[in-house]
Amino acid sequence: MLTNHLIELNSNENSLGMSAAAKKAVINSLDIGFRYPDDQRAALIAKIAEINGVAENQISLGSGSSENIRTVVQMLKNESLIEGKSFQVIVPHPTFAYAELYATSIDVPVVKVPLTPKNYAFDWQRMQAVADDFDGISLLYLCNPNNPTATITDTTALKNWVQSAPANHYFLLDEAYSEYVTDSSFESGIEWLSQQQSDNLVVVRTFSKLCALAGMRVGYAVANPQMIAKLEAFISIDNTNLSGAVAALATLDDKDFLALSLHTANQSRQMVEQTLDELGLRYLPSQASFIFHEINGDVQTYIDRMRDHGIAVGREFAPITGFNRLTLGRPDEMAVFVKVLKSFRDKGWV
Length: 350
Description:
A 7-stranded mixed β-sheet has the order 2-8-7-6-5-3-4, with helices on both faces. The radius of gyration is 21 Å and the shape is globular. It is built from 12 helices and 11 strands. Strand 6 (169-174), helix 7 and strand 7 (201-206) form a beta-alpha-beta unit. It folds into 2 domains: 7-17 and 256-346, Aspartate Aminotransferase, domain 1 (Alpha-Beta Complex); 20-253, Type I PLP-dependent aspartate aminotransferase-like (Major domain) (Aspartate Aminotransferase, domain 2, 3-Layer(aba) Sandwich). The protein is α/β, with parallel strands linked by helices.
């Protein structure tokens, strides 16, 4: 073992940790922990709406954005039953699995469309064809930037697709990592919602990544008011806990922490990319808090060897082989990773 504790670079958590302001807010809230967090929940909705330039009735809070993803799937399943129509979920493959998992749990068929073989981008034309050939309701789940590839999809193509789609095609844009995007061509789906009221678009975001509040379980959906009202029918009542609400509010106000969080991720990304370039290992252009890189070998063997050296790295994402997803931790953590990776090259392991 090269370290005294496991460096966790496998779950896209923000190892910078919660901001001091968020910790203080949680501690200060303990005296009112016996009260329901109605006021704090309302304040968080107002803050999110203000930041995103939308109305408060366009926000639905979730226990993590995973709950928001679930409500979209459940709501459309219910709509399909009421209307007597079939319902399917279309996902790129691989991607974040929660839409697929929730759909499968309620017997909704899921169509997986492989990423393009050359650069692992969304094959949006094929996904569109799958939706067009289906006589029923289709939900297209698109994680942008995508997980595990950390890449963004073409904004113009996606925007044109969403805005020209028929009424039975719905889009769920998961923008969990949008705060990390540096590509100037990227546009959030929230911008499209602020420009016009789309009936077929839901955007979900989370406080788990840049804000470092994964354990607080706070996320939200943005859509038009009518869609939000439908989604709220499937949200757990009082789903926002007091600690999560006050921590999220404090973090949004802590501009120095948010800047540091972003700077730290960018610094760590630069360290890893420089090393991968030195070793001649391919990687995809990361627009997120992780990087998808080549290892030139069996992924599970690589994972096991990294753990033996005190580092947990991401799992394999079939059907892609020979690549690993690496969370960008703190620079001091990445320095250890870089040292270990270079030692693997010396041993002929990567």
